[in-house]
Amino acid sequence: MKVAVLMGGWSAEREVSLTSGAGIAAACRRLGHETIEIDMGRDVAAHLAAATPDVVFNALHGSPGEDGTVQGLLDLMGLRYTHSGLRTSSIAIDKVLTKAVLVPLGIRMPAGRVVASASLHRGDPLPRPYVLKPIDEGSSVGVAIVTDEANYGNPIAAHAEGPWRHFDRLLAEPFIAGRELTVAVLDEAEGPWALAVTELRPVKGFYDYDAKYTDGLTIHLCPAELPADVEAAALEMAARAHAALGCRGASRSDFRWDDSRGEDGLYLLEVNTQPGMTPLSLVPEQARFRGIDYDDLVARLLASAA
Questions:
Q1: How far apart are CA 80 and CA 94, in angstroms?
Q2: Are 33 and 2 in contact (CB under 8 A)?
Q3: Predicted pLDDT at 211
Q4: Mapping DSSP to helix (H, G, I), strand (E, B) and coil, where does residue 196 land?
Q5: Is-catalytic flag, 13?
Q6: Does 152 qualify as catalytic in the annotation?
């Protein structure tokens, strides 16, 4: 096939997308496909029209490649592409909409409320500790944990660095003590296949953007050492979330587990419809654990394109 690998763009996750795209393009060439790499700019439609690909491998992370915008463009152009479609992408990128879909189905997620960033300088929206995060960003971009010991002030000072200086609205959620877990899900003929549970142990701080993408800052335990019921619950919740949102190809569900509460302490935080494909990324790592090497994973995702 002729494959166009769409990567880069202008989101906060541009560099990660470029790394994912380079690895995917190399795998496509090893698989024998004619491969074109496109660093997405505002003229992306012209580049895609000139390339005339049989399929587009969407290696973008963040907006506009993960929020339905690019998916709508590719739909209008009549191009097949990997990963989730417009409707799923526009819902899953929005943490509030994701809760609206999944919580009524019995999938446990943290309670939360949307707050105006300016209101944070008058008082806390929740008892400390709590988490503030952008409503529609991934890779822990703009996440802040507000504690009594935080240097943000009490209330948060307007001049303190944090997501309140970059986003008009934020999602406030209770901080869940415990452990960071993640589950990759692939499509199979018989339904979503949750591959494994990985525990992520940052060397310091929490699992933020730098911890995710800097070698040596996070220890990956795959498979995680968990009680059988907690492992089964995480796998089941990730597969159900993938199906309920209508994800295609691959997704990754991120969890926090309060290990003092057993299975009742497991909370789904978000579902990523464009999970990373870098050397440090979790979907390729869990695929390897299941005997699927990187090239085979890329081939599977190409085969799932629609």
A1: 24
A2: yes
A3: 46
A4: strand
A5: yes
A6: no
Looking at residue 204, its pLDDT comes to: 65
CB 165 within 8 A of CB 152: no
DSSP for 93-153, please give it. T-HHHHHHHHGGGT------EEEEGGGGGT--SSSSSEEEE-TT--TTTT-EEE-TT-TTT
d(CA 301, CA 81): 9
- Could you tell me the pTM of the whole model? 0.92
Domains and CATH numbers, the chain: 2-82 (3.40.50.20), 92-108+178-303 (3.30.470.20), 113-174 (3.30.1490)
- For CA atoms 208, 209, 214, 219, the dihedral sign is positive
**Which member of 187, 208, 254, 285 is catalytic?**
254
Active site residue 42: no
Q: Which residues contact 31 (CB under 8 A, 6 or more apart)?
A: 295, 298, 299, 302
Q: Give strand pairing partners of 34.
A: 2
Catalytic residue among 8, 9, 11, 13: 13
Cβ atoms 65, 20 nearer than 8 A:
no
Distance, in Å, from the CA atom of 123 to the CA atom of 172, rounded to the nearest integer, reads 13
Q: d(Cα 132, Cα 173) in Å, to the nearest integer?
A: 7
Whether residue 285 lies in the annotated active site = no
Longest dimension (CA), the chain: 59
Catalytic residue flag (residue 270): yes
pLDDT, averaged per 10 consecutive residues of the chain (306 residues), comes to 97 94 98 98 97 98 95 98 98 96 98 96 96 81 89 94 95 96 96 97 63 67 97 98 98 97 97 93 97 98 98
Radius of gyration of the chain (CA): 19
**In the beta sheet, which residues pair with residue 255?**
181, 268
Residue 199 annotated among the catalytic residues of the structure: no
pLDDT for the residue 85: 98
Q: How many CB atoms lie within 10 A of CB 159?
A: 8
